UniProtKB/TrEMBL annotation:
Zn(2+) binds at C198, C201, C222, C225. GO terms for molecular function: histone deacetylase activity, NAD-dependent; metal ion binding; NAD+ binding; NAD-dependent protein demyristoylase activity; NAD-dependent protein depalmitoylase activity. The active site is at H190. InterPro entries: DHS-like_NAD/FAD-binding_dom, NAD-dep_sirtuin_deacylases, Sirtuin, Sirtuin_cat_small_dom_sf, Ssirtuin_cat_dom. PROSITE patterns: SIRTUIN. This is NAD-dependent deacetylase sirtuin-2. Residues 1-21 are annotated as: Disordered. Residues 60-337 form the Deacetylase sirtuin-type domain. It comes from Papilio xuthus.
Amino acid sequence: MSANSPPGKSDEPAVDNIPPNAFESLGSRLRDLDVDSIRRYLASKLGFYEPSEPPIPTEQVLEEVSLDGIVKWIKSEKCKNIITLSGAGISTTAGIPDFRSPETGLYHNLQKYNLPEPQAIFDISFFRDNPKPFFTLAKELYPGSFKPTISHYFIRLLHEKGLLLRHYTQNIDTLERVAGLPEEKIVEAHGTFYTSHCLNCRKEYSLEYVKEIIFADQIPICTECPGIIKPDIVFFGESLPDRFQNCLREDFQQCDMLIIMGSSLEVQPFASLIDMVPEWCPRLLINREKAGERSPLLRLCGLAGGLQLDEHAVRDVALLGDCDHGCRDLAQRLGWGEELHALVTVEHERLEREVGMSPQMTIPETADAAGTSAETQL
């Protein structure tokens, strides 16, 4: 059975199961968009053109393309390797702002730092010249002040059920670690506050060491050289962590269920990960709005990148609404609602007792979990 065959199916052995590099995959698609392709697209919209050969349909493994179909798939013996992808949307109920929301997003509220542009605060060249704005902001965002959300504990529950292959996150808040997800299950694609390194000699420092200096309103300087200590989050102008590329090669062709949570799917190469699973693999988007949809032009050109959230969908389902509500809804339908509620309650009480976190988060009852999010394939 090849990686591109649904569980229980077999075909010729795959020659190479290594997924393409995200940048190369995206670039190859764009190179294929020539003038003739665009002309065919416009002609088809006007009814002047019919493709000579219809595209090969994607095999449907879901009994029905709906949230109920996703639930049945997860409960089946064929679903064994779930990958979760997460963005800022799973952490907003913890009190951490996302980056791009109007009025409340992080970029919108950086005027006080007198930056040439909002993104400069995460630009490595700007940081080397003027690190103070970043460390002032880091004091507001630093791990240790925020509790994991229901969404984080749903991911942990997938792990405890033996279903989680890997969790890929765009977030730098370390809340997956705080929620008790094992380190080997986490890929922090955009880096993390959990460790820091000197920019010059690369000496490593712990989260607590750097936190103490930042909260004293000082810039952390290496004890071995005059270099600045920088948390291991990925700035503009830096490469993604080696672990990100290494795990891609192991994980995505094994994936038999992809869950995308709280991401706009706008930032590359993370956004391209949705296309690295096998062509039959079901994909569930839990988000406030649709994201990652493939364009009609790419579809006509035979380039199947992106989610298909319309009446022609055969594997993609969207559960629109707040991520925590969506995860509670999904857990309830899977029969895990009470278990998730108990896990969140116990863990939050532990964090309040052991770490001194305030009980600021309200955990909704499981009884009204169903129906809090809007399911759609349209």
